[in-house]
Design brief:
The complex is a heterodimer of chains A (about 550) and B (about 290). Chain A is built from 23 helices and no strands. Chain A has about 550 residues and is mainly α. The longest helix of chain A is centred in the middle third of the chain and has 47 residues. About 0% of the residues of chain A have low confidence. In chain B, about 35% of the residues lie in helices and about 30% in strands. Chain B starts with a strand and ends with a helix. In chain B, the strands form 3 sheets. Chain B has a 6-stranded mixed sheet with strand order 6-7-8-3-9-10, sandwiched between helices. In chain B, a hairpin with a 2-residue loop joins strand 9 and strand 10.
């Protein structure tokens, strides 16, 4: 137990990013933190809490008071499951020091337990805000409808705590078991790419499974949705009740104050966790052997890739491309994450016509309604900024170099070129999927003539967003991480950057709307904002890049 | 203490180790020498149980490596790359983690830090240590457990001569206390001065083994004596019937300033056997 605790402590040492050196940088970071809190955490928590409150309040009339809460818990569990598979693969098998640890007097079971709880803690930090907001929303509605004493019954409180943790812990247990078994099954196949692709296939299968379950949402109105919930006809909830019984059981205990479902829920989690520990005990060591072989192959492949007679900038761009596409964690979180935008655009186009508001919006757009054009213009801008923040490519530009960051200064390639290569690759990975999404949307709305302008706007927004991300990372890159996942998950730069991009999207959207209010003319609005974006993009390139360079040069 | 027979390992159809046999006796320093990519780290990983292998058998403490239990592993110290250093933790906290894992009393932490000269840095985070200090911290981690076997993968690579000397002293002290040491290095001088026995590894095969001086003697095909004369001239006298006569004549004439015999070094033996120079991993990286 002592060993497991020590390992857990050692792994967790990477969870929090240290504050940067220097008073000025600490001040800047505190401001970023403030922006992130006001720009992301607070609005998301308020929004989620409010949605839960409204849904629960409405559902009380139908005697299905916790169905809203259950749906949200199921959504969180579903997403945890989708993103958990690559996460657990990476955490359990591809951390740099794992093989070394197996040679120590540590059982694979201890190693697994320490890894699992470390990951749970890291993930819980990310999702707990939303979960707290959901439960607060529920309890406010419950107090309003049933009174203080009834709503805050001790069993309900305990059930909410169990639900809060259970929503995340169960998917992580499943993902751990899957990752352990998959590694065991595939270890005989001595090909690196199959390991990675299997993980990707699993990711796609789960994503599709859940997305298909969502299809039902589009066909039904809110009232129909409530009906399906009350009548237990909701496909998504039914699948999730089976996959994540703890969500169902804890909400049952929450509403009925019956302690039995609560006990069952705790027992199910305990039993599945024990099963995962048993699977780890039996298979983890063999899986780590297989991962060690992959590690060696990766190293030899990297050596080969250095060769080639490309020009300096092209070589640097290729290097960045290979780092992002050949490192599993970056590929999953930074590269494939961009594919969600075109997929979301296609799903939106397929499902949206079922909604009346879409038909009206499409009609107005086609007939040149100025406000509709301004709204679409603002949406495209927001998408570009948020996509850039979400993929974390720009905000990990220097973080990805890790402890070898200093090497950038001594490489025979000029630092400007190295920065430019990082920006080019971040822009390309974000811009191409964004253009696909924009093309799908404009074609579907029948305004293909706007496409060239939207492509230009998307490019400018992605460029500006990338420079912002790169600049933020250059202030205090997070270089001391033991595995690539910590470079992303434990990295406040990514979080701050996302907040900053959201604030920028909001500002540009606000300016667009303001100009429209003043001019009542879509052409003037779009032209004015486009000019502003051109100026901002040029300023970003001319002033932002030297700043990035200066920051890196001054890093100790 | 450590016995390997017929170890074979392939990655994606490419054989990286082929029929490796080793027999390392207790209380000796064994050096595995070879260029970058020869398979040194892979072999250490196999012997320490970090990696499986395709064929052969490895026995440590007389037991199959796959059957080593926690108590056996507590007697094995491993120092590889930068592994086992948690950057945010202080030197003392880093050792505390491993003291818990190895069941070592915390009172030994201070003692070990003093032994490696890190007492004053005990509260310093590992990320603020110099390269030499990091190497000493890594060594402290393995020395703290008083191991019976010590695996050191390039322990002095990239270090300054003073730190290198310091680490050599710690290693020989361990050997004198009865510890068996398995080290890999590309530094031939280090191997010759430190190791009781060496094996030269090239392209996954052991091409020569034995005591360093014994290997050098074995390859001393053309025994020569080098003379530096007071005139500034250097002459090479090949061992033979007349060599003693030539040297004594020159000495009688007072023309000899220095005289020394010329045996091959491990480096020249390696070049003779493989036709290439041993280069470190770092040299290979930038070659």
């Amino acid at each position: 137990m002592n060993k497991t605790r020590s390992l857990y402590k050692a792994f967790s040492s990477n969870l929090e990013m240290p504050k940067p050196n220097g008073e000025k940088k600490v001040k800047i970071y505190n401001r970023f933190g403030m922006i992130a809190f006001i720009g992301i955490m607070l609005p998301i928590s308020i929004l989620v809490g409010y949605i839960t409150f409204v849904l629960t309040d409405l559902l009380f009339a139908f005697n299905g008071n916790a169905y809203g809460l259950l749906s949200e818990l199921d959504l969180i569990s579903a997403f945890a499951m989708i993103f958990g598979i690559p996460l657990m693969f990476s955490v359990l098998f591809f951390s740099s020091d794992l093989n070394f640890l197996t040679a120590l007097p540590v059982t694979p079971r201890s190693l697994y337990v320490a890894r699992f709880w470390h990951t749970f803690r890291a993930e819980n930090v990310m999702t707990s805000n939303v979960l707290y907001a959901i439960y607060i929303g529920y309890f406010v509605a419950a107090v309003k409808n049933t009174g203080f004493a009834f709503a805050l019954n001790p069993v309900a409180i305990l059930a909410s705590i169990a639900g809060l943790y259970g929503a995340l812990i169960l998917p992580l247990i499943y993902c751990s078991i899957l990752a352990l078994l998959l590694m065991l099954i595939l270890r005989k196949i001595n090909r690196t790419d199959i390991y990675y692709h299997t993980s990707l296939v699993m990711f796609v299968i789960f994503a599709l499974m859940f997305l298909l379950s969502f299809r039902g949402y589009g066909r039904i109105s809110v009232m129909d949705y409530i009906d399906t919930m009350v009548l237990s006809n909701n496909d998504f909830t039914n699948i999730c009740n089976f996959l994540f019984p703890t969500n169902y059981l804890t909400t049952l205990a929450l509403t009925t104050h019956n302690v039995l479902p609560l006990i069952c829920s705790v027992l199910i989690v305990a039993a599945l966790y024990a099963l995962s520990v048993l699977v780890a005990h039996l298979t983890y060591r063999k899986g780590l052997f297989a991962a060690a072989v992959i590690g060696n192959k990766k190293a030899s492949r990297k050596t080969v890739s250095v060769k080639g007679g490309h020009k300096v900038l092209a070589s640097l761009v290729i290097k960045e491309f290979k780092v992002l596409t050949r490192t599993m964690t970056y590929r999953m979180n930074c590269v494939y994450a961009n594919l969600l935008w075109p997929i979301a655009a296609v799903i939106f186009i397929a499902e949206a016509p079922k909604f009346e508001f879409f038909k009206v919006f499409a009609y107005k757009l086609k007939n040149g309604d100025p406000l509709s054009h301004v709204i679409l213009f603002a949406v495209i801008i927001a998408m570009a900024f948020i996509a850039s923040g979400l993929n974390s490519i720009a905000s990990t530009s220097f973080t990805r170099e890790g402890v070898h960051l200093d090497m950038l200064k001594y490489l025979p390639a000029p630092l400007e070129k190295q920065i430019r290569a990082k920006i080019i690759i971040a822009v390309l990975f974000t811009f191409i999927p964004e253009v696909l999404s924009v093309a799908v949307i404009t074609l579907r709305f029948g305004i293909a003539y706007m496409l060239p302008l939207y492509i230009l706007i998307t490019f400018l927004c992605v460029l500006i967003a990338t420079i912002i991300g790169t600049l933020m990372d250059s202030i205090s890159p997070y270089t001391v991480w033991s595995d690539e996942l910590s470079a992303l998950r434990g990295n406040l730069n990514c979080f701050f950057n996302l907040a900053a991009e959201m604030v920028f999207a909001l500002i540009v959207g606000g300016i667009s709307y303001g100009i429209y209010l003043l001019s009542s003319n879509a052409v003037i609005t779009i032209a004015a904002v486009s000019v502003l974006l051109v100026i901002a993009g040029t300023a970003g390139v001319l002033a932002g890049l030297p700043h990035v360079k200066k920051n890196i040069e001054l890093l100790k | 203490m450590i016995k390997a027979s017929g170890i074979t390992k392939s990655f994606a159809g490419k054989q990286v180790l082929s029929g490796i046999d080793l027999d390392i006796k207790a209380g000796r320093i064994f050096g595995l020498l070879g260029p970058s990519g020869a398979g040194k780290t892979t072999l250490i990983k196999i012997i320490t149980g970090q990696m499986g292998f395709d064929d052969g058998e490895v026995r440590v403490f007389g037991k199959n490596v796959k059957e080593l239990n926690g108590d056996d592993k507590k007697q094995i110290g491993i120092m590889m790359d930068n592994h086992g250093i948690y950057e945010r933790f202080s030197c003392a906290d880093n050792l505390k983690i491993f003291a818990d894992i190895y069941g070592v009393d915390h009172s030994k932490i201070g003692e070990t830090l003093a032994k490696v000269g890190l007492s004053e840095s005990r509260r310093k985070p590992a990320m603020k240590l110099s390269k030499g200090m990091r190497a000493r911290l890594q060594l402290a981690r393995v020395l703290m457990i008083s191991p019976k076997i010590l695996f050191l993968d390039e322990p002095t690579s990239g270090l300054d001569p003073m730190t290198m000397k310091y680490i050599h002293k710690l290693i020989t002290d361990q050997r004198d206390m009865g510890c068996t040491i398995f080290l890999t290095t590309h530094n031939m001088e280090e191997a010759a001065s430190l190791c009781d026995e060496v094996a030269l590894l090239n392209e996954g095969k052991i091409i020569e083994r034995g005591a360093p001086e014994e290997i050098c003697r074995r390859y001393n095909h053309q025994k020569t004596i080098n003379l530096h004369l007071s005139s500034g001239e250097d002459i090479e006298v090949i061992h033979g019937m007349d060599s003693a006569k030539i040297i004594s004549t020159l000495m009688e004439q007072g023309k000899v300033e220095t005289i020394h015999s010329s045996e091959p070094t491990l480096e020249t033996v390696f070049i003779e056997l493989t036709g290439r120079k041993i280069e470190s991993d770092e040299e290979a990286k930038y070659a």
